[in-house]
Amino acid sequence: MEFTARALEIARAFMIEAEVDFQIAKIISGSPYHSRTIYFAQQAVEKMVKACLALKEIFTTDHNLSSLFSAVYRDAFSDMDRLVKAIDSLERHGAKVRFPLYHRPSLPLWIPSQEYREEDAQRAMRDGEYVYRTLKAYLEGQIPEPPPTPIL
Q1: Closest by CA position to 6, among listed 43, 58, 70
Q2: Would you state the torsion angle of the CA atoms of residues 37, 41, 42, 44, taken in this order, to the nearest 10 degrees?
Q3: Could you tell me the CA-to-CA distances from 1 to 44, 103, 143 in Å, in that order?
Q4: What pLDDT score does 25 carry?
Q5: Per-residue pLDDT tens listing for the chain (152 residues)
Q6: CA dist 81 to 23, 55, 70, 73, 96, Å?
Q7: Where are the alpha helices (DSSP H) in 56-146?
Q8: What is the per-residue pLDDT for 1?
Q9: Residue 141: strand, helix, or coil
Q10: d(Cα 96, Cα 33) in Å, to the nearest integer?
Q11: For residue 118, what is the domain's CATH number?
């Protein structure tokens, strides 16, 4: 399949940033910063999904992409159900991993850094790593290496 130069450039950019987020998630995984481990795992996955969508000329600022990804790539992955389930699981954390939730007075104040547990972070890392590695392998098979930059 042929991709436009711009689609390839955007997909590569998302892959670069996803790699950064994934590496940060790995670095802090196992630390007491469970909410941030989940956040960076989710961010890495979101960027890899956006890289895949960019190849199809779909550019979005939305954060919940599991349904769109499933619809666009339904025949590209034999394990689509597992992929979508993992993507969706990470998407469900959304802003909850970053911000205190206090809008419903009937509920106790939610403080992410105090509420998430190690098992939450481990589950997010398992899901994140599975999606990240699966989509990375797919994207590397689709995206040719960029031409070398000429030396002037």
Answers
A1: 58
A2: 140
A3: 25, 48, 10
A4: 98
A5: 688 999 999 999 999 999 999 999 999 999 999 999 999 999 999 999 999 999 999 999 999 999 999 999 999 999 999 999 999 999 999 889 999 999 899 999 999 999 999 999 999 999 999 999 999 999 999 998 766 777 77
A6: 25, 21, 8, 11, 24
A7: 66-72, 80-91, 112-115, 118-142
A8: 65
A9: helix
A10: 14
A11: 1.20.120.330
β partners of residue 110: 101
Q: What total number of domains does the chain contain?
A: 1
Q: Confirm if 72 and 50 have CB atoms less than 8 A apart.
A: no
Length of the chain, please? Answer: 152
Instruction: Determine the structural domain holding residue 20 and report its residue range.
Output: 5-142
Half-sphere exposure of 103 (CA within 13 A, CB side): 3
